[in-house]
Design brief:
This protein has 206 residues and is α+β, with helices and mostly antiparallel strands. The strands form 3 sheets. Strands 9-5-6-7-11-3-2-13 form an 8-stranded antiparallel sheet. It has a 3-stranded antiparallel sheet with strand order 1-14-12, with no helix packed on it. It has a 3-stranded antiparallel sheet with strand order 4-10-8, with no helix packed on it. β6 and β7 form a beta hairpin. The protein is globular, with a radius of gyration of 20 Å.
Amino acid sequence: MLNIPVWLFLPPYILPAILSGISLTIYLFVFNFFRCPIRHYRGERVNHVVSSVDGRVVAIEKVYEGEYLKSDAIMLSVFMSPLNVHANWYPVDGEVEYVRHHRGRFLSAYLPKASVENERSTVGIRCNDGNRITVRQVAGAMARRIVTYARKGHYASIDEHLGFIKFGSRVDLYLPVDCKILVQIGDVTRGGLTPVAVMKEKDKNE
């Protein structure tokens, strides 16, 4: 809308063209950012974990996850730049058992302490294969809102959206310590498409 008065009332020289170019660039950036593409995972689903987001792997380490799992876990973190699609997918098929939002700070999502200090939302899932995992949406320095579609009792499917985080942020997956990690730090992932780990089958009654 701003471009209409610019072209009507300013001389039709360089300035209106520059302003229109800037407006178009901003529009395309926002349009790309807020896309929620529909994706269908074609790979093996049993015991497999698929990346929740588009981005780059920034951490793979053993930590204690005390909110849902209450045990040691492998934390696999993927950082999303402002240029990535920020829709989040479920990483496994199963049932949502736990959902909780936490208020917090807005440190750079790249920092390790962002996982426990930043604004975040935690989703606990019992997989169809008997394993339990935690998915944590973490806000970044630019992100000011986390949207979580998951609700306790919902069925989780790798093909479905778990939520959305606005602007730079990260998603942490907390996986069983005996799982096989398929990616390395620095690898690029695509949400709902890139396998990141294989878990050993567990007793579903555990």
